[in-house]
Amino acid sequence: MSVLPLLDKLLTILWAHYKSRVSYAALYQSMVEERGGKVQNDHIAFRTFNTKVGSQPSGVEAIARIFTALGYVRKDTYLFEDKKLTAWHYEHKTNPAYPKIFISQLEVDKLSKETAAKIKKAVADAPDLLSAADAQLLEYVAKGEELNQTTMDALAANLAAFFVRPWAAPLRRVVEEVDKESQYAAWTLLHGNSVNHFTAYINEQHVDEWKDIEDTVTALRQAGIPMKADFEGERGTKLRQSSTKAVMEDCDVLEESGAKGKINWSYAYYELAERGNVPGPDGKLTRFHGFLGAQATNLFEMTKLG
Question: 48, 120, 128, 249: which could form a disulfide with 56 (CB 3.0–4.6 Å)?
Fold first, then answer.
């Protein structure tokens, strides 16, 4: 079937592009492979606006429709009331080795009227970068139909090209003003559908001298990678996480004059996750596959400036 080869190609392209922007992830991969280990990503995260986004579906559906066509199914829901966010995670229905997909959406109408209006105006004319032809091919693949190699390669490249900012560069002033109420909103205005982060699956890295996430973080710090100061989750619990600091990028903005400009802003961090065991339906221990809201709340802050 074409679904898995197409998914493999898409994930490979997204991972390569992400590493080109987040050097910490590329260095982690080199360090793991030099020690005879392997990189398996636990999950990939995306951010969206739950409001009218031009021709693109609003909220999580903009991203989810691509992955559900490629074999993912929706699992748990997460509410972040203080941040005005709702999120879902998705897992591949036939192969748990594929990274989970974590998609959040900002409930724009829960922000102040002024901030919500600025966001809505900035994204109102966004095109849907998933073309009708590619959506049709995705539907075709989802039904189990085969694509020839040339068509599959072209579709994978087109799908990867979806994961960018689809709307015009926002006004510098708008980004700075929106950031005062929601750093999540400012980030999403600048980066749109781009990958927010990938996450190393520590349980599956198989580096003998790094027995856990603490050893891994210590090694990354010693290699000069700036890391989060503390861990999310206690040792031995069902989910323990850390991350690098976010890399900074010069992002496109518009000045009040209409001229093109740049603003230096956070892009992405590389996250690390170590999963513990929980009792399954049959009472036997099984690895925890979900997420914990309080921990995710703190990790959202890794793209905050300052």
Answer: 128
231: alpha, beta or left? (left if phi > 0; alpha if psi -120 to 50): beta
- Mean of pLDDT over the chain: 95
pLDDT tens-place string over residues 158-179: 999 999 999 999 999 999 999 9
pTM of structure: 0.95
Here the CATH number for the domain that contains residue 61 is 3.10.180.50
Quote the domain boundaries for residue 127: 3-303
Check: CB of residue 22 under 8 Å from CB of residue 247: yes
Q: What is the pLDDT of residues 185-200, one digit of tens each?
A: 999 999 999 999 999 9
**In this model, does residue 75 exceed pLDDT 80?**
yes
Q: How far apart are CA 130 and CA 135, in angstroms?
A: 6
305 DSSP assignment? -
Two structure tokens written together for 39? 């990189």
* 167 and 125 Cβ atoms separated by less than 8 Å: yes
Rounded (10°) CA dihedral 198, 202, 205, 211 = 150
Number of structural domains in the chain: 1
Contacts of 282 (CB under 8 A, 6+ apart): none
| Pairing of the two strands 277-279 and 72-80 | unpaired
